[in-house]
Amino acid sequence: MADVTLAAVAGAHGITGEVRLKLFAQGLESLTVHKVFTAGGRTLTLKSIRPDKIGAVARFAEIGDRTQAENLRGTLLSVPRETLPPLAEGEYYHADIIGLSVVTTSGEPVGTVTAIENFNAGDILEITFPDGKTVMVPFRAPAVPEVGEVVVVDLEWLA
Fold first, then answer.
1. DSSP letter string over 39-53?
2. Which of 30, 53, 77, 122 has the CA that lies 20 to 30 A from 9?
3. What phi and psi, each to the nearest 5 degrees, are found at residue 4?
4. Measuring CA to CA, which residue among 69, 89, 84, 75 is closest to residue 31?
């Protein structure tokens, strides 16, 4: 099974090797249940993590100074998909949605989900049309009435 990315290193924090994280998961709890992360072809062991105004600040056993922390900037932190908890009905991991085909409620193909953003008002799907143009649609009914093998979007939200 594929790995699922839970965070990205935004940069160094201080001089002792801590890093700032941009979280892609819901809260610190989603990271603290994992002790080991795949990070750019290497393994990082989480020693500590605390909230920060933009996400979190973490310390990894393998990172001992600011230079090593700065070298991690942009690195994605991932875990194996099978280590994630099961979801309730109507919940999805972003990794399961990104890449799905998008169709209208009448079944007409329109594009692909290429990203999911959250600007503190709920998840928003970024849908890319075959011509390369994109549209953002709120990831909630009535805009997205169904998710399965494909993502169904009401046509009026695609304008």
1. ETTEEEEEEEEEEET
2. 122
3. -120, 130
4. 84
CB 134 within 8 A of CB 128: yes
Instruction: For residue 89, tell me if it sits in a domain.
Output: no
> Is 88 among the domain residues?
no
Predicted confidence (pLDDT) per residue in 4-40, tens digit = 889 999 999 999 999 999 988 777 888 888 999 999 8
User: What 8-state DSSP symbol labels residue 94?
Assistant: H
As for how many domains the chain has, the answer is: 2
pLDDT confidence bin for 45, thresholds 50/70/90? very high
Which of 30, 52, 83 is the last residue in one of the domains?
83
Distance CA 68, CA 18 (A): 9
Contact 8, 76 (CB under 8 A): yes
